[in-house]
Amino acid sequence: MNISEARTRIVASADELYNARGIQAVGMDELRAAAGVSLKKLYQEFPSKGSIVMAVLERRHRSWAEGLDATVRQAPTPRARLLAIFDYLAQWFGEDSFRGCGFVNSFAELGAVSPDVADYARQHKESFQEYVGKLSEDAGAPPYLGPQLSILAEGAQTTAAIAGTVDAAVQARQAAEVLIDVALGHEVRGAA
Amino acid sequence: MNISEARTRIVASADELYNARGIQAVGMDELRAAAGVSLKKLYQEFPSKGSIVMAVLERRHRSWAEGLDATVRQAPTPRARLLAIFDYLAQWFGEDSFRGCGFVNSFAELGAVSPDVADYARQHKESFQEYVGKLSEDAGAPPYLGPQLSILAEGAQTTAAIAGTVDAAVQARQAAEVLIDVALGHEVRGAA
DNA sequence: GAGCGGAGAGAACGTTCGTTCTCTCTCGGT
DNA sequence: ACCGAGAGAGAACGAACGTTCTCTCCGCTC
């Protein structure tokens, strides 16, 4: 077996287990079993559990950013691209494995004791906010729209995770529509 | 020393410590020291760490609900009362001890392994959503406004916690203004 | 004053965790 | 065929945790 094959499998298993049950609740032996790897090889690939956690965060960031961008790219107009963010959320929330944003969760679990985890979570959120800001700019919206939509997306994730329903994605999407149209100077009528 | 005095001090210390460093990172001995109580008395008041966690959640819920309601009551109109939610958030985010919503954090840490914690977090969020829904109804807004504002508030909390700034509260407040006015059928002009 | 109940301090226990060590087996080169 | 390097399985280790037990001391009752 290739060395990097083992790395990949370890990180993938860790991602799945940490997401499902929390980082601190999953021990190295359980991870070893799930990855089908010896404990020796585990510590040969990663010097510590902390480094596995960081590798998982990197994997999550790549996966999220790529998935989001793929969905957004399919939308034809700048306005549709902004709304596509919430379609991506809706699809994500519907997955059985969805248990909230992995960065929020790891920040809550380890942010206070691990500066690395806290910094990475911050970076991930900043990168998302920049992405949304760029999409907003492309749509010709004033700069306040980006943060507003980012906050909506963030709130939808937390709400969906704790309530256990997909509703938050469509509610956030409807709110986003209003905010976008107002920011673009369109006429908006409230539905009664 | 009165028995319920000890209980109160234990729960207050636990709240502070759990908030600052995470529940799993704080051991019973550290809590005992912070509360100024013997380990014996600790287990005399609470049968287990889990029961202390639940008591902390109850305390947090009461404190949050009372603080929010006090701020909201000061606002003169239904519209101002809806916006007061975000003033409350802004003040909260500015506190040194702010480290994100305690229910989101405990859900992230223990929700997957403790149904009690998960259920309580769900109840807390539901209760907040009902509260916002009631305020929306009082303002004469259509029923979709409540969830929209709840999601905004939720997102502001997470964003402020991870970014470490208060900005999210005022950004969410501005978005809320737009959503409220559109929902009430007012004319809204986008600022450019 | 003697004895007793309860409280505080902290040692002790059993478990779990992250990490390392040991033992055994296999496989490739001469 | 033999020897050495490397890998797998899992025992072992030290620390930390939640929880319980022990010991000592204080104040109250007869």
Description:
Two copies of one chain form a homodimer. Chain A has 192 residues and is an all-alpha fold. Chain A has two domains: 46 residues, Arc Repressor Mutant, subunit A (Orthogonal Bundle); 127 residues, Tetracycline Repressor, domain 2. Chain A has nine helices and no strands. In chain A, helix 1 crosses helix 4 and helix 4 crosses helix 5. The first copy, chain A, is elongated. Chain A starts with a helix and ends in a 9-residue tail after the last helix. The model of chain A has no long low-confidence stretch (mean pLDDT 95). The interface between A and B is large, with 61 and 60 residues.
* Average predicted confidence as pLDDT of chain A: 95
Chain pair with largest interface: A-B, 61 and 60 residues
- Overall 3D geometry of chain A? elongated
Q: What is the fourth-level CATH superfamily of the largest domain in chain A?
A: Tetracycline Repressor, domain 2
Helix content of chain A: over 70%
User: Number of domains in the coordinates of chain A?
Assistant: 2
Helix-strand pattern of chain A, N to C? Answer: HHHHHHHHH
What is the SS-derived class of chain A? mainly alpha
How would you classify the quaternary structure?
Answer: homodimer
Topology, element by element:
The structure is a homodimer of 192-residue chains.
Chain A: H1 3-21, H2 28-35, H3 39-45, H4 49-74, H5 78-94, H6 102-110, H7 115-138, H8 145-163, H9 167-183
Chain A binds a DNA duplex (30 and 30 nucleotides) through residues 24, 27-29, 37-41, 43-44, 48-49.
